[in-house]
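Q: Hi! Curious about what DUF881 domain-containing protein looks like structurally. Here's the sequence.
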Amino acid sequence: MGNSWRWSLILGMVCMVLGMGLSQQIRLVSLLNNTTRVQQGRILTFLVTRTVEQNQILENQVTNLRTRIHTLPPSRVTPAAEKLAVADRMAGLTSVVGPGVEVTLHDATKPSYPGEPPIYQLVHDQYVLHVVALLSAAGATAISIDGQRYVSTTSIFCAGPTIRINGINYGSPYVVLAVGPPQALLTALADDPDVQGWSQLVSISYRAENHLKVMGYRGQVQFNDARPAKI
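A: Let's find out. The predicted structure is below.
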């Protein structure tokens, strides 16, 4: 009788532990699925309609102005060069400095829950894209990821356990620098439900900085189909 009671107690404790683990796993799966659905529309809408269109127009203007400089008389070269410098800065081709925020996304360092897929502990491309979109919407005027300037032609996608940015593979941690109004950028990050949800899976930290330097885009700007518009 005594042994039967002890075995029942042990079995009950095992079932309780398994139930807690299963409940946690279900919560994590639900959290990831919900945040994934929410972020897809935001990223696609924002990146396509704002960043790509505006930056591509500016980059086309840079190309057009450079071409026109060679045909201008000396008396008109200086004003054209000044316009070119402004267009370069707006298109992300020159380095800028100013206040802003630094965001660090790091693969999870804490032990995983029983049965938790390892993929949940990795920072994914959608996390980085979403953070970039949030910062842009909150007023950031220049953004870089691990030193790579974010421009209209920037590509960000997963490549195994790493993320490929502008054709180069980077591993965790991923450091995003954004020049802009620090308080507005911090508020956008703190109030976003996706960032809050992903912070339960991986490490996401951010802080304001009084002085940041975001490097200019160092790659080649090529448009196979786009042509400079007439001004």
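A: A fun detail: Helices lie at 2-69, 74-90, 125-137, 182-191, 193-198.
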